[in-house]
Design goal:
Elements lengths: L1 H5 L11 E3 L1 H15 L2 H5 L16 E3 L5 H23 L3 H5 L7 H13 L5 E11 L6 H7 L3 E13 L7 E12 L2 E6 L20 E5 L3 E6 L6 H19 L7 E5 L3 H7 L12 E4 L13 E4 L1 H4 L4 H16 L10 H13 L6 H4 L1 H8 L20 H19 L1 H11 L12 H13 L3 H15 L2
Parallel strand pairs: 1-10, 8-9, 9-11
Antiparallel strand pairs: 2-4, 3-4, 4-5, 5-6, 7-8, 10-11
Helix pairs in contact: 8-11, 11-12, 12-15, 15-16, 16-17
Bound molecules: zinc ion.
Zinc ion binds next to strand 1, helix 11 and helix 12.
Length: 467
């Protein structure tokens, strides 16, 4: 952008960063799948009985006569196939892993072999497949003919894995798989047949290229592609950031993190299941589950935008990494009702601490608005944090200054206490609290003020800060 080059010290627009929550996304996908039902079985018509909903989901098969015993046998064999596949992966037994792949799908087999090899250096503590829904999508007649075999089946299967020493809870990664029976055995034939119906499997680092691994006690960096030489600089960023975050947040988090470094911005988007341009302005993203327990029952990932990082100076890199690791640390107290201005503002507050960045250089868009007479009168709504929102930079800047105001007027410890009060668990026996009600409670209980009084103080503060 032209205006970026005007000021060397300015942190560019795409420095702004956000947090997305894979668990929420995954839940949405699961609900969508359940809505579809066992379409393969339905399409097969009355000659094949539709499987009743079951608490024990099994792979759904079709193309065979209505024979319950045969169906049960097929489902058991597909489950066994997935178990063998998982065991082969854990044992690093490439031949056994590829023996589960359809011999008539050479391109898929090559891709599976590549992913197996790409993951060779990643230290896994566990790796399993969990059938979430049998018959999750329908195959077209043409596709079924192409596959051949004596029967076909589809399923939504979650890959469930943990990285050793870093993931306190497993990561669930959705896959939409096609199986085919031929010559008396079941095989995995494809993982892309759900895509025409909008069922795209999650992409993991090893699906994109060889994964280089650099680990210390507090950080593991997974670098995709030929960029092993860049990994130590990321490890250094993590080490500084973990210390900085701990000084503000305290010790109640695992104090370590997983950082994924894609080869380029396009790979970053694929890891996030997004369109390539969706993260064009974003330097890094933290994924994880809201409200995970403080003991670290989370499996967070900081995914950086390498195109952005390559342009950042040392200070900016540190700001971004500290921002993201603040999200990781505060995960247990970041809930659906936490306003985004608070979660992003707090992450920016920690990120910018000791960075030497002035309001002039770190909040240029908000500054320009205010000097032009456009003074915001309320804290930014969650919607203004959409990655493609025109006024996204201002939203971050407003959240940052709100947190800075709290730290300056009430003290940093009160800011942390306020964050924890807003994101604390619901009262016993009640549902999720209303965002505004919870905020009012925290403003009153922790800061001794009201949302309206705070907003007025904040408007005065940002107006004075940008002069
Ligand atoms: Zn963020």
């Amino acid at each position: 952008m032209d205006d970026r080059s005007l000021s060397e010290r300015r942190i560019p627009r795409w420095l702004v960063v956000l947090v997305v929550f894979t668990a929420t996304v995954a839940l949405g996908l699961t609900l969508g799948v359940l809505g579809l039902g066992s379409s393969d079985q339905r399409r097969a018509g009355p000659s094949v009985p539709t499987a009743p909903p079951t608490a024990d989901p099994r792979a759904g098969t079709d193309g065979r006569p209505a024979d319950a015993a045969q169906q049960t046998k097929d489902q058991a064999e597909i489950t066994s196939l997935l178990d063998r596949r998982a065991a082969a992966f854990r044992d690093r037994d490439r031949a056994a892993f590829l023996a589960t792949i359809d011999p008539r799908a050479p391109a898929f087999r090559d891709a599976q072999g590549a992913a197996f090899d790409n993951a060779a250096h990643v230290p896994f503590a566990s790796w399993e497949y969990d059938i979430v829904e049998a018959g999750a999508f329908a195959l077209t007649d043409a596709r079924r003919t192409e596959l051949g075999g004596t029967a076909t089946a589809t399923a939504h299967v979650d890959l469930v894995y943990r990285i050793a020493d870093f993931d306190a809870a497993p990561v669930r990664s959705a896959q939409y798989l096609t199986f085919v029976a031929r010559d008396g055995a079941w095989y995995l034939a494809a993982d892309g047949d759900g895509a025409p119906g909008g069922l795209h499997g999650s992409v993991q680092a090893w699906d994109l290229g060889p994964v280089h691994v650099l680990r210390t006690d507090i950080g593991i960096v997974l670098g995709i592609g030929g960029q092993a030489a860049e990994l130590p600089s990321y490890q250094k960023d993590i080490e500084t950031a973990v210390v900085d975050v701990g000084e503000v947040w305290g010790g109640e988090w695992p104090g370590k993190t997983v950082v994924v470094v894609p080869a380029d911005q396009a790979q970053m988007a694929r890891l996030l299941g997004a369109e390539p341009q969706q993260y064009a302005r974003i330097a890094a993203v933290t994924t994880g589950e809201r409200g995970a327990s403080a003991e670290g029952a989370a499996a967070d990932r900081v995914i950086v935008n390498p195109d952005a990082f390559r342009e950042l100076g040392a200070v900016e890199r540190r700001v971004v990494m500290t921002h993201e690791i603040t999200h990781v640390a505060s995960r247990a107290f970041t809930r659906n009702w936490t306003p985004t201005w608070l979660s992003e503002g707090f992450a920016d507050y920690v990120g910018y601490l000791d960075s030497g960045q002035s309001v002039r250089s770190a909040a240029p868009e908000l500054r320009r608005d205010i000097l032009d007479g456009k003074v915001p009168q309320s804290l930014p709504a969650d919607e203004q944090f959409t990655t493609t929102h025109e006024a996204l930079p201002q939203a971050y800047e407003m959240g940052w200054l709100a947190c800075r105001l709290i730290a300056e007027r009430w003290g940093e410890a009160k800011l942390v206490e306020f964050y924890r009060a807003v994101g604390g668990p619901p009262a016993n026996g009640s549902g999720p609290p209303d965002q505004q009600a919870r905020l009012a409670e925290a403003f009153n209980g922790v800061l001794g003020t009201t949302p309206d009084d705070f907003t007025r103080a904040w408007v005065a503060y940002i107006t004075a800060q940008v002069q």
